[in-house]
Predict the structure.
Amino acid sequence: MEFFIQQIVNGVLLGSTYALIALGFTLVFGILNVLNLAQAEMVTWGAYAAYFLSLYLGFSFPAALVGAILFAGCLGILVERLAIRPVSNPFKEAEHLSPLIATIGVGIALQNLAIRVFEPKGTPFPLAFSGAALDLGRIHIAGGKLSAFAISIIVMGLLMVILYRTSLGKKIRATAEDPQAAIFLGVNVYSIFTIVMFISSALGGIGGVLTASIYGIISPFMGASLGLKGLVVMIIGGVSSLSGAVVGGILLGIAEALIIGYISSAYVDAVVFGVLTLMLIARPQGLLPSFK
Amino acid sequence: MSEAPPLLLRVTGLRVRYGSIRALDGVSLEVRKGEIVSIIGANGAGKSTLMKAIMNLVRKETGRVEYKAHDMTATPPYKIPLAGLSYVPEGRQLFSKMSVRENLEMGIISFPGRGLSIQAELQRVYRMFPVLATRESQLAGTLSGGEQQMLAMGRALMSRPEFCLFDEPSLGLAPLLQREVFRAIAALRAEGVSTLLVEQNAKKALEISDRCYVLELGKVAFEGPSRDVAADPRVEKAYLGG
């Protein structure tokens, strides 16, 4: 029983990072009407930004995290300007394919750039968490995972405050529901798109830094695997559902931890995509309703 | 009529096409300060397209839109409301997942330059449409059709516009609610707001407006003081069921 609870705890801690990455997918899909597959590379590049800031400028963890947020966010703005905006029309629901393919292209370019520039086999991450572990009876929680979880929760809380308690958030939600109505009420929706791309990509970057801090290693391929998980989470949760992204992330984390604990880590991906397939058959709209 | 009030809106030679279909074929019109100007015409005559073209929500082939003598033909659409025009579209386009109050706030938060207090404007709109106050925290999508129309109008009035464009405000409403909508439009004139009104209820539109344009197949078929238009036998026959 303790082992079971231990794995559930591990899963929740791990899942919070997936939720962050998935929220990035969800926001862009909900507001720009684009499935942004370049989101995965924000995870990688956010982690490397923190790595270089720490290595060459001696940044501490919080400073490097802020640096990674800014770097990934600005990279996201560039993706929107250069790849999404020229080929998309957010006012027509039907046009999903061209911007999707454009973001796949950007994703491949960014990943291959990372493979060229950085060590493809991976590099130790200097800002690994070293917080004291928490022992609750026989349940053991590694300090690093706990810190990453706490940061994820704070970030998600901030996101909800922005979306539901500020006028920027009101404009974002209005743009998600009816961009044309937002426009005739004086909202510059293109600046909303820019802000949403910044936020979403920054969420990916934070996910990358937290994962790197937990495992103590980064590689040019980390985004591809985490990004794919974020995408699965978004689909399980419901494509335009913020709560769905959070719940889906936690569920995926728990599922992975249980598979690793009781079966074998070799079966993680098989089970995850198996669940995704079942989900698409049984409940294609996802677990929770859309926010728009 | 000693001196005509100043010209607010001037539209000249507007042409809009959707693919191979021409929706507007050279429409010109004017609205002066304090006027209620109505546009009537059959379905597909181009009434809604005309409204959208003024708000720059559809692409204009040719033509010119001036507001207070400023050329607004190429103004980005989100800047047009900032010039003082408010638009209530056909079908209302409310934010159904937002509360009544949040919908109303959306009508004002992009206008910080006007120095209006959100609270004061909310109270003003609630006085105008008391039912909205009782529904304040309800989601807009759960309102009845009449309440939704009041909300759409209230949202448009939050920023204290000088000029309102109402597209089919009485469509689908019970007669009692229609009367309330027209009463609100007439009350706006008393506050000095000018109105361009598209209506399928031609009789009511002619009653409430000062002047009227009759659109047919994307062209102005005739125009004039509403009293004269209402008396025209052709209008009577085609639009008033005479």
DSSP finds nine helices and ten strands in chain B. Chain B touches chain A through 26 residues (CB under 8 Å). The longest helix of chain B spans residues 175-190. The first strand of chain B starts at residue 7 and ends at 18.
